[in-house]
Amino acid sequence: MAGTFRADQVGSLLRPPELLKAREEFTSGQITREQLKEVEDACVLKALDMQKQTGIAVYTGGEYRRSGWASIIRESVEGLVQTEGPANPRLLRPWQGPHAALANSSIAVRGGILQTGLVAGRIRQVRRLVEDEAAFLKQHAPGPWKITMPGAISAGGQLWKPGVTDQYYASKREFIDEIAAMLQREIRALVEDGVSYIQLDSLHYVERIADPVVRQQMIEDGEDPARYLDELIEVDNSVLNVAKEYPNLTVGMHMCRGNNRSAWHAEGSYEPIAEKAFNLLNVDRFLLEYDTERAGGFEPLRFMPKDKMVVLGLISSKEPQLESIDDLRRRIDEAAKYVPFENLAVSPQCGFASTALGNLLTWDDQQRKLELVAETARRVWG
User: Fold this and answer.
1) Where do the DSSP E strands lie in 17-165?
2) Does residue 92 contact residue 137 with C-beta atoms inside 8 Å?
3) Domain parsing of the chain, residue ranges
4) Would you report the helix, strand and coil content of the chain in percent, each value rounded to 5?
């Protein structure tokens, strides 16, 4: 039976300075992979201890062994090629918000998430996606642990470049299906590892289809947003259906609007995707951003099936200011007009460090945010 996990978290945590330094040194050839792993191990232990102190319900490794939330694909394959310019400059909006310039300038930073010019040739998987993450969490996590993985289209969008990748693949779908097959194999391996909870981070539902600017851009480029939504659901379900073969495994999906240096890509209500996505995606729980007015209201939750949980991302991982528990309780009550109270949980709206450099909070800010998640869950659900 899937877990309830009232006090949830999205996955990534702020990297300690020593981890950022070690990854930089590894990338430049100053230390070995084994030396990097020793630093990663120590930092994950530090993160697990911090999570235990907060009272959060499920543990993560903070994505510390990755350069970014979706990098497990590129870090597990051979066949990537270097080209000039970004893979697909019109895929998403530029970074938005007060910290947009910082976010845009950080993209090309070594160890960051979207290394300019790194796109796919004919790829070949040479190692498991998250084997080291899982093995360490299995040994050291003080309680149930989750693994996050990118949706195939979200990950593939970072690596596909028209005029380059299509020289190696007959279609973009062929390439996406190859990534989906990697995710399917990884899920089966993770179940053998003893994972409690698998979360797919599939962002194009809101970063593309629900954002009015990108939606119009898609139409101008000859893309049909409705057809794209159908393809997203089909591809994600090809992965999620494997996870749902295991009744004791909790299966979640996170949808967000971008998360880098406290900036974001998108805005817009879940309304354009809600009826189809909420009903057709084969998950136990949706982790949804609801920290600002950019997400719209709770009305799209009226489409949520009664057998699925909604994790309300009410607490910002982008800004250090603490939310009021009274305000959080009020917003949970508002959401309960559309989703049964017992089907709700709470979390930060996104991870704290989807990219290696992370959002503009301190380690102590992060801990207080997770403590707030746990305290809110205790007060609301007991």
Assistant:
1) 77-82, 118-125, 146-150
2) no
3) 17-69+129-155+169-381
4) 45, 15, 40
pLDDT at 2: 82
Q: 49, exposed or middle or buried, with CB in 10 Å at 0-12, 13-18, 19+?
A: exposed
pLDDT of residue 111: 40
Domain 17-69+129-155+169-381 has CATH 3.20.20.210: yes
CA distance 239 to 198: 11
Here the tokens at position 135 are: 């093995």
Considering the chain, what is the average pLDDT of its residues?
93
Q: Which two tokens stand for residue 153?
A: 């289209």
Q: Which of 270, 273, 276, 259 lies closest to 297 in space, CA to CA? A: 270
98-109 per-position pLDDT tens digit: 887 888 777 654
- What is the spatial distance between Cα 63 and Cα 184, in angstroms, rounded to a whole number? 19
Q: pLDDT band for position 112 (50/70/90)?
A: very low
